[in-house]
Amino acid sequence: MAKDPRLGAYMIGVVSMRYGVHPQTLRLYEREGLLAPSRTEGKTRLYSDEDLERLEFILNLTRDLGVNLAGVEVVLTLRDRLNRMQEDLERLAQALEAAGVKDVPRPASGTGLVKLTPHGLRKR
């Protein structure tokens, strides 16, 4: 059974130490709408694995590529929209194939301005 990426129970102190980020920075990212950790009944922030992946992406943009928070917001918004559109295209392609249409084109993965490596984003 696959693990749900929304699960996880990492408190702010653990996330802060793990990524070398001050807790106030994490709170700022939340205020700016870049991260949305869940909360316990006592209002303690709990970061999921999905939140940590998003944080890693944010940190790559800010630390490695020098993007400011306004730019991070734009990049995250575009990335989320692109992911939704790719999912829509995949559903459409599946529906066309199910309807008997042959040779349904699939979107190719394109290249971008930054190189994706196993270690994150890097300047070219």
Structure description:
The chain is mainly α and 124 residues long. It has four helices and five strands, in the order βααββααββ. The strands form two sheets. A three-stranded antiparallel sheet has the order 1-3-2. A two-stranded antiparallel ribbon has the order 4-5. A hairpin with a 5-residue loop joins strand 2 and strand 3. The longest helix is centred in the C-terminal third of the chain and has 30 residues, at 69-98. It is elongated, with a radius of gyration of 18 Å. The mean pLDDT is 86.
Largest sheet: 3 strands, antiparallel
Classify the helix fraction into a percent range.
Answer: 40-55%
Low-confidence stretches: none
Quick one: how many beta strands?
A: 5
Rg for CA atoms: 18 Å
**Beta-strand fraction estimate:** 5-15%
- H-E string: EHHEEHHEE
Shape: elongated
Strand order of the largest sheet: 1-3-2
Q: What does the average pLDDT come to? A: 86
> Number of helical segments?
4
Q: What structural class should be given to the helix and strand makeup?
A: mainly alpha
Distance between the termini: 38 Å
How do the strands and helices of this protein lay out in sequence?
Layout: E1 10-11, H1 12-19, H2 23-31, E2 38-39, E3 45-47, H3 49-64, H4 69-98, E4 115-117, E5 120-122
Notable traits:
mainly alpha; 5 strands; 4 helices; 124 residues; elongated; three-stranded antiparallel β-sheet
In short:
51% of the residues lie in helices and 10% in strands.
